[in-house]
Design goal:
The complex is a heterodimer of chains A (about 300) and B (about 140). Chain A has helices at about 25-30, 35-40, 50-60, 105-120, 135-140, 170, 180-190, 225-235, 265-270; strands at about 5-10, 10-15, 65-70, 75-85, 90-95, 125-130, 145-150, 155-160, 175-180, 190-200, 200-215, 215-220, 235-245, 250-255, 260, 285-290, 295-300. Chain A is elongated. Chain A has a nine-stranded antiparallel β-sheet. Helices cover about 25% and strands about 40% of the residues of chain A. Chain A has nine helices and 17 strands. Chain B is an alpha+beta fold. Chain B is built from three helices and eight strands; from the N terminus they run βαββββαββαβ. The chains are: A alpha+beta (about 300), B alpha+beta (about 140). Chains A and B meet through β7, α6, β10, β11 and β13 of A and β1, β2, β3, α2 and β6 of B.
Chain lengths: ~300, ~140
């Protein structure tokens, strides 16, 4: 792979394969990672890299083992790795320095690793991640690739099928992922979204009039309806979009998270002041709050 | 509360109205259950009058594959506008299958919006409705 320039959150970053000469930069990168970020990468506190690790990480054959580094100036700000696990499968891992997280870099790196893995003839990517690493899971879940996850001993195994990539029409038009701030900016401007719940095993989707309150989705729902009961017993999905018909351009933001009834009087009083109308029938409206556990967005132009 | 209380007024739509609205819409939201969680994907669809089915192009395997594995999926179109908080919505619950009939695909190709950029490798997903419900939503001040 040649050097590539990527732009995230206003920074121009360079991505290139790792070189043995990157040893010092890699050590410096690792030292700057927060405790949490290190745990998400290594599953245990791992403040320093040993010299054997440095050599192993920087000396790769670019076929069975590949690593890409993302540079801001002369500093490494992210590393993505690919390692063969048999003929068809390669394991992926990546870590992004804390100050560059939530800029969409994970999506970019997964795309580049998937491209490199296809070039090397792999059919599947596998990854292990801790179940609470929601950023990473969000990257995998919304990569536009077929993804399966399973829990195993406290670790989440993710498998990504490389043989059926994201549709060509989408890539012919320019599709880009929205970072978390961009997703929230769009959620804050919208008033109508769609909520999806599972009702006796069947998905249902209904429009709701919502507001963004303290980073959560809030809307009124008729108490006593079947839909309302389902809202509170299941994880739910919430979607907001805006598409221009003629240009076939637009964006969508998807939120998945736990939902619960708002009962705190102070919070209810604040929400009562918002122009929120229930769109389902009932004389009595309860307020539902959906936590933005997973947020992802795409823009197509 | 400072603002006047508003009450939701719902009116069920007749099956023919639901079909008209599905036909007039070009964007719907597909609801599928993935790993026990509902997910929503916006999709460009057409409504095939000949078979009373919804059909849309997809190559994204997350959507297609997940939908085919579930017994039933949801498909929603609406015209609810923030200015008025009033409008309509139609919810279809049905089985999702891959459409392979060349005649049905030809009809869908003819109805689709040009900007979608459908190619020869596009898969078409069809929803055979089991239940279609539609409602007109209005808010009346009390």
């Amino acid at each position: 792979m040649d050097r590539k320039t990527v732009s995230t959150a206003g920074d121009d970053l360079v991505v290139r394969p790792i070189e043995p000469d990157d040893a010092d930069r890699l050590v410096a990168f690792h030292e700057q990672l927060s405790h949490d970020t290190t745990i998400y990468r290594f599953f245990n506190p791992h403040p320093h890299l040993s010299s054997a690790e440095v050599e192993r990480f920087t000396c790769v054959d670019h076929h069975q083992r590949e690593a890409l580094v993302v540079l801001a100036g002369d500093e490494i700000v992210a590393v993505a790795r690919l390692e063969a696990m048999g003929e068809a499968e390669a394991e992926v891992a990546f870590v992004v320095r804390d100050d560059h997280q939530n800029h969409g870099l994970g999506h970019v790196l997964l795309d580049l690793l998937a491209e490199r893995a296809r070039e090397e003839g792999f059919h599947r990517l596998v990854a292990e991640t801790l179940p609470d690493n929601v950023r990473m899971l969000s990257v995998f879940r919304h990569a536009g690739l077929h993804e399966r996850t399973r829990f195993d001993g406290g670790v989440m195994h993710v498998t990504i099928d490389l043989d059926d990539p994201e549709d060509a029409p989408m890539t012919q038009r320019t599709m880009r992922f929205l970072d978390r701030d961009e997703c929230f900016a769009r959620l804050a401007q919208a008033r109508i979204g769609r909520a999806a719940v599972t009702l006796t095993g069947v998905p249902h989707v209904v429009p709701v009039n919502f507001a963004l309150v303290d980073g959560a989705i809030v809307f009124r729902s008729g108490a006593g309806t079947k839909f309302h009961a389902a809202l509170l017993s299941e994880p739910m999905a919430f979607e907001v979009d805006h598409f221009d018909e003629d240009a076939a351009a637009g964006w969508s933001v998807l939120v998945s998270g736990r939902s619960h009834l708002v009962v705190d009087p102070a919070e209810l009083a604040r929400i009562d002041a918002l122009p929120l109308d229930a769109l389902d029938p009932s004389g009595k409206h309860a307020v539902v709050r959906v936590e933005a556990d997973l947020v992802s967005g795409r823009a197509i132009s | 509360m400072d603002r006047p209380t508003r009450r939701t007024w719902l009116e069920d739509l007749a099956p023919s109205e639901c079909a008209d609205l599905l036909e007039a819409s070009w964007l719907g939201r597909l609801g599928v259950i993935v790993d026990g969680h509902p997910e929503i994907f916006p999709v460009n669809h057409v409504f095939d009058r000949a078979t009373a089915t919804i059909i849309f192009p997809t190559n994204a395997r997350t959507k297609l594959h997940s939908a085919l594995h579930e017994a039933l999926v949801a498909f929603e179109v609406d015209g609810v506008y923030a200015d008025e908080i009033a409008g309509w919505s139609v919810l279809v619950v049905g089985a999702a299958v891959e459409e392979t009939d060349p005649d049905a695909i030809a009809r869908a190709m003819a109805l689709r919006r040009a900007a979608w950029g459908v190619s020869a490798t596009t898969h078409w997903l069809r929803i055979d409705p089991v239940k279609v419900t539609g409602r007109r939503i209005s808010l009346v001040e009390e």
